[in-house]
Amino acid sequence: MLNKLKIEINHFKSQPHNFRILILTNLVYAFVLPVIDTFVAAYIMRSTHGDITKVVIYQLTIYTGIPLTFLLNGWLLKHFDIRKLYSAGMMLSGVSMIVMMSLKELDLYGIALAGTIMGLSFGFYWANRDYLALAITRDDNRNYYYGMETLFYTIISVIMPISIGLFIDSQIGDAQKHTAYIIITGVVFVITILASIVCFRGTFKNPEQKQYVFFKFHPLWYKLLSLASLKGLAQGFLVTAPAMLILKFFGNEGALGSANSIGAVIAAIIMYVLGRLAKPSDRIKIFAAGLILFAFGAAVNGVLFSQVGVVTFILLLLIAKPLMDLAYFPIQFQVIDIVSKIEKRSEFAYILNHEAGLYVGRFLGAATFLFMAKYGSAEIALRYAVVIIAILQLCSIFVAKTIIKQGQLENKPDAPILSTEEAGVIAPV
Asked: Where are the transmembrane segments (predicted)?
């Protein structure tokens, strides 16, 4: 056992310096993500007396801010070191929480303000993180990269939710619980500073090309955008759905932490093994397994809509989501590798445009939930919106197969390189 552990450590050490620094940066910041994903939603529900529509509105303001920040980030990359923008994204997440905790009344304007700042945070963070991950990895080590990221994140997801949930539940009264959230916010801000310090140990370079905005792309890219929209459907409200379901059926943050942590243990083991051993040819199988688990969990929750149904859904979701991500990101990056060479554009142009595809799906997902909550009820939305979206996401399996098949044809050494006119490309703006 010890020898196997040494082998894995040596394998990690054999990776390039920037590969290791990016992993370590994301490892530190991973302590923040469970707080943002779960307990911010719980705080909004507690502060608005269980109004789940405000949680979804908060999520929608975040997702509206992200693509706008991707665009702003592209312009700022002409003037600022990518490490500074990456660090700014991490630190803004703490600022967003500070703003939210400082509000006396959490009305729609306050939620929109905090959500917009968090959207700025995520925009800077993900725009630069995705570009750096693309720049420092190759197709043959991307499964390993995302397997490592997921391993660290899921292990931390065991520790953080339980610790935070118990800490909040140990406080008596709303005032004490509010103070607990403020303390957590302070810790989050300190962690973002530490993650930024680690980031500056890398020698990351800005994208060389300075033009990032295009309006027409190679046909293969449009297929990936459709896959991104399907992925975004679930993100529209699924980040906060577990918190809403747990608080509805269990009523406390401690149960929320426990449910997250149990699934995270299982996911951590699965993700590392797959990331270490899976081949690029296995991505469709991994992707399909994640989507099917998600659909099954959503169906169980929809049928039972009880404590058993919620726990089953969350456990399966915690396994399904990293499975989908483990396959999705390498597929996305492989397509970017191919089309950026064909169209002779910066990889960041595709990372920026990809966010537009995600936003379309996120908006439709959140809108579906809000529509069902308004014209039906919050319970109907929580029960059936997840099922509808999970079924729609199963289409991703067939879209991904088409993308990989076409990508293999385009990537052959003797494959014809399309001209800009043949590929449907126009001049940048």
From this structure: 21-44, 56-76, 85-103, 109-127, 148-168, 180-200, 220-243, 255-274, 286-304, 384-404
DSSP H helices in 219-252: 219-238, 241-249
- 30, 37, 80, 252, 308 from 195: Cα distances, Å: 9, 18, 18, 30, 37
DSSP string, 149-165: HHHHHHHHHHHHHHHHH
Q: Which domain holds residue 401?
A: 13-410
* Residue 340: how many other CB atoms lie within 10 Å: 19
Evaluate whether residue 30 is within a structural domain. yes
Q: What is the reported pLDDT for 193?
A: 93
Q: Does residue 48 sit within a domain?
A: yes
Residue 7 lies in a domain: no
Q: Is the pLDDT of residue 293 over 70?
A: yes
Q: Is 112 exposed, middle or buried (0-12, 13-18, 19+ CB in 10 A)?
A: middle
User: In total, how many domains does the chain have?
Assistant: 1
Q: Quick check: 393 and 291 in contact, CB under 8 A? A: yes
pLDDT at 121: 92
Cβ proximity of 157 and 261 under 8 Å = yes
Lowest-pLDDT range of 71-80, 225-234, 412-421: 412-421
The owner of tokens 């896959």 is: 227
Which pLDDT tens digit goes with each residue over 238-256?
666 776 777 677 765 555 5
